Amino acid sequence: MEKENIYILGIESSCDDTSAAVLCNDRILSNVVADQRIHAEYGGVVPELASRAHQQNIVPVVHQALEKANITKEQLSAIAFTRGPGLMGSLLVGTSFAKSLAYGLGIPLIDVNHMQAHILAHFIDEDNHKKPLFPFLALTISGGHTQIVKVSHHFEMEVLGETIDDAVGEAYDKSGKVLGLGYPAGPEIDRRAQLGNPKAYKFTKPKVDGLKFSFSGLKTGILYFVQRETKANPNFVEENLNDICASIQYTIIGILMDKLKLAVKQTGIKHIAIGGGVSANSGIRKALKDAENKHGWTTYIPKFEYTTDNAAMIAIVGYLKYLKKDFSYFDVMATARLKI
């Protein structure tokens, strides 16, 4: 007897992207993302503007996701949504919508931890994509988070180390601001880094114990470096931008890889997965591939569309929780801070 298909609608609204996706079991039928370009004018996400834009986007985005998946809302088995962490105003929009729709349809509601979702996106069933073997180490790198997580099973995770101050994505954006680049600066630094000399300038790596990260000192070091050099030559940044970007990226990737190597040494686990917005970076992807060959690691690198905030990763967690009948009560609340 053929088992019945499970259709999960995922809703993601943790920051400035409104996204909805539909899964049939563990395969993607649709993954729609509406980004908010307005924040580029301010050099960062403005929470009030983000929540307003979510209110405008959520209905058309969900409608489009269902339409692309070629199913009706009545066929849905459950609705999964991002409970946190994230911006409170943004989370409230997605949470309220998910609750209302699930209640109206009389189907289960499933709350999802955004950081777990970045890791479990690797379990979306796609051709030519290998799923991580347990246990594995996950490096979650984004604008708000930098963590190394030991993943023993889908919902058995332990944070081994995280940043004590700024996240790696923030280090990219703040460095980009110093260099006069637009927001978000990460993709532009990555693009220019490929054209420059990574050893043109040396930046000091922060000395932090164990598997903890720190990026505030590096940001300050880059700021002072640029101020010092532009004082001597006002055109310094313009004349050396590719080399500066390459050197910044080389330092950041060095910090991440040093900690990963230490985590492998401490745990003996050689299966490594990455997730989060910064995992789209070409330098970190290449460094992981090089480590695979050099150290005998097995690495798992997500498709670009699953690196930034998206609802497909929320929906796959929803599917995995649905199989366990791990449903939420309707009084579940969004929370800006939520631990793995």
Largest beta-sheet characterization = 5 strands, mixed
Total number of distinct structural domains: 2
Strand order of the largest sheet: 3-2-1-4-5
Q: What would CATH call the homologous superfamily of the largest domain?
A: ATPase, nucleotide binding domain
Oligomer: single chain
Mean pLDDT: 93
Shape: globular
Strand-residue fraction? 15-25%
**CATH architecture name of the largest domain:** 2-Layer Sandwich
Distance between the termini: 38 Å
Number of strands: 10
**Structural class by helix and strand composition:** alpha/beta
CATH C-level class of the largest domain is: Alpha Beta
CATH topology of the largest domain: Nucleotidyltransferase, domain 5
Give Rg in angstroms.
Answer: 21 Å
Describe this structure in words.
Belongs to the KAE1 / TsaD family. Fe cation binds at residues 114, 118, 309. It catalyses: L-threonylcarbamoyladenylate + adenosine(37) in tRNA = N(6)-L-threonylcarbamoyladenosine(37) in tRNA + AMP + H(+). One of its GO terms (biological process) is tRNA threonylcarbamoyladenosine modification. This protein has 340 residues and is of the alpha/beta class. The protein has 2 domains: 7-122 and 307-323, 2-Layer Sandwich (Nucleotidyltransferase, domain 5), CATH 3.30.420; 132-302, ATPase, nucleotide binding domain (Nucleotidyltransferase, domain 5), CATH 3.30.420. The chain is 42% helix and 19% strand. It has helices at residues 47-69, 88-105, 114-120, 168-178, 186-193, 216-232, 236-267, 282-295, 311-323; strands spanning 7-12, 17-24, 27-35, 78-84, 109-113, 136-141, 146-153, 156-162, 271-275, 298-300. The strands form 2 sheets. It has a 5-stranded mixed beta sheet, sandwiched between helices. Strands 8-7-6-9-10 form a 5-stranded mixed beta sheet, with helices on both faces. A hairpin with a 4-residue loop joins strand 6 (136-141) and strand 7 (146-153). Helix 1 packs parallel to helix 2 and helix 3 crosses helix 9. The longest helix has 32 residues, at 236-267. The protein is globular, with a radius of gyration of 21 Å. The two termini are 38 Å apart.
